[in-house]
Amino acid sequence: MHDQRIPKILLYGELAEEKRPSGRPKLRYNDNFKETLKSLSIPVENWEDIAPDRLQWRGAVHQGERLAETRRSTLAATKREARKAREENPAQPQPSLQCSICYRCFRARIGLISHSRTHKDN
């Protein structure tokens, strides 16, 4: 492919002078492409050798997609199990945050302070 073709300019383009802004910078097409290749378990170093052979490329993409979907669903199931376990066993309030009059427990100090105002009238 000639150096002046738009696909090659997009894939191999670099920033000429300026630095990227702080925080997470906007990614170039090439950065997104490499991220996708990594998620599909296609080697970033030699994807150009695989791409010209259409059957091999399609096979690599489909196999990578199956692996990525398996990883994603396994991770989602693990997160869901952890979340459900937390719902079944909620954290117990700290005993130090307990009303001295009615012995009600509170999770936050501000809750105890707000509650103590109800006992001032009594």
Automatic annotation (TrEMBL):
Disordered: annotated segments: 76-95
One of the record's GO molecular function terms: zinc ion binding
C2H2-type domain: residues covered: 97-122
Biased composition (Basic and acidic residues): 76-89
Matching InterPro entries: Znf_C2H2_type
Superkingdom of origin organism: Eukaryota
Keyword set, alphabetical order: Metal-binding, Zinc, Zinc-finger
Protein name per Swiss-Prot or TrEMBL: Hypp5883 protein
Biological source species: Branchiostoma lanceolatum
Taxonomic placement: Eukaryota, Metazoa, Chordata, Cephalochordata, Leptocardii
Gene name, Swiss-Prot/TrEMBL: Hypp5883
